[in-house]
Amino acid sequence: MKVPFYSTRYVNDQVKTLMYKAFDEVMESQYFTGGEQVEKFEKDFQTYIGSSNFITCANGTDALEIILRTWDIQAGDEVILPALSCQATLEPLLLLGAIPVFCDVLSQGLCIDPVEVEQKITSKTKAIIAVHLHGNWSDMKSLVSLANKYNVKLLEDCAQAHGLKFEDKHAGTWGDAGAFSFYPTKNLGALGEAGGMVFKDKLEGERARRLRNHGQKSKDVHIEVGRNSRMDTLQAAFLSVKLEFLDDWNFQRSQLAAYYRENLIGKVKFYSGTTTVWHQFVIGVSDREKVQEYLKEKGIGIAVHYPYLLPDFIGSEEFFPISAEAVKSMISLPLYPGLTTDEQEYVIKSLLGK
Length: 354
Known about the structure:
Elements: H1 9-14, H2 16-29, H3 36-49, E1 54-57, H4 60-70, E2 78-82, H5 87-96, E3 99-103, H6 114-120, E4 125-131, H7 140-150, E5 153-157, E6 165-166, E7 169-170, E8 177-181, E9 195-199, H8 202-211, E10 216-218, E11 221-222, H9 233-243, H10 246-264, E12 269-270, E13 281-284, H11 288-297, H12 310-313, H13 321-329, E14 330-333, H14 341-351
Parallel strand pairs: 2-3, 2-4, 4-5, 5-8
Antiparallel strand pairs: 1-9, 6-7, 8-9, 10-11, 12-13, 13-14
Helix pairs in contact: 2-9, 3-9, 4-5, 4-8
């Protein structure tokens, strides 16, 4: 048996007819950037997450950078972020010349440790980035309290957290702003690149809307230097279709994760949090390279998403014990809507050497 690490076939087959209809509507409209479909998705998604200020953009990395630019983060400003995350969390800081200040993560969920965050705050700190890694919930209550206490901005990196809620409040609406990626493999994925931003402050949202469109206040009225980061109309139309199914797909992920946990408890280390939408099912194993090679021989796709820590990329020698352990041992198992019980059992038995 072969089990791919990820497949969009089930998800896309489920909505195929609706997607074809959305494609035809875009073709008929003759709008391929902007237009009613983009406006519709912005309204649909902000209604879904309970926000009044959602702005689409080209991808999740742009979303992070535009948010930071909206806050005038610039060279010399310090921004606190987790040592363990996707490269995209760090890139916007380096592009803006800001100083990344890294913190370790908590062992459960692998999200940033608020206690260490407070220890790292200085007079130069302008923002904190909380990453809901692998779909796990960051401790937003503590982080909001810290942001308010020290008068710094709080940005939620929600690239892996579509539909994630705590106390009935969605990820992206706790901090001052939230950044979303709709890359095809996300819980809510387009059929190409797409992203979005949520802001608490209306004026900040208006500025972000300008920045993603060449700094235009209105047609051909450029009041600051922006960039081209508009969402394609077609991707917006597809995302509106798929949004209707997101909660069901997240529920399927939770059922698959529960089956893994039931059969692997006490046999591998779990890195999941207590509140999660299961973007990935991440475990820790000893002798990872050997496990990888064995599962590959068995036809099972797995992933090592972060083979190094973000501080390593800039040559930092600071040590983060929990992040360092995780980055050497964690692997992600197949987890996606449409994964069958037989496929899961094959993965589990193979992992356990049965």
